[in-house]
Amino acid sequence: MTNWITSPPWARRAAPAPATGQTPQVPRAELLSAYRNGRLDEAKRRHGSPLLAFIGLVACAAVALMVYLAAQNGSFSNGGAVVDHNLANASQRVQAPIKNAESKAGNALENAGQSLKQRAGDQTPRQ
pTM value? Predict the structure, then answer.
């Protein structure tokens, strides 16, 4: 609290009005308007990225899976070995059709080259 003798007049504050026990009534329309404005302001402030939320959810699921495997197998190294084994199996399943397609394409090209050579050899040059 400031001293009225040492403080300048512009720094003095008026004394608050005594409380009467009743709260002032605010019109309902003003309350609803203030409520809507507050909700909009809060929604703007807390707007997040759904993509980042999804990435966070996937990361949490991966961590939960690792913790579950570690608890099931007794240690994190055993749980990691299980994950590595599953990833290797999945990788082999995916790569098998690709390798098969590569070999078929190589054989087809080789056969096509040989048939072209035979055609070229069968044709006699015209004079």
Answer: 0.32
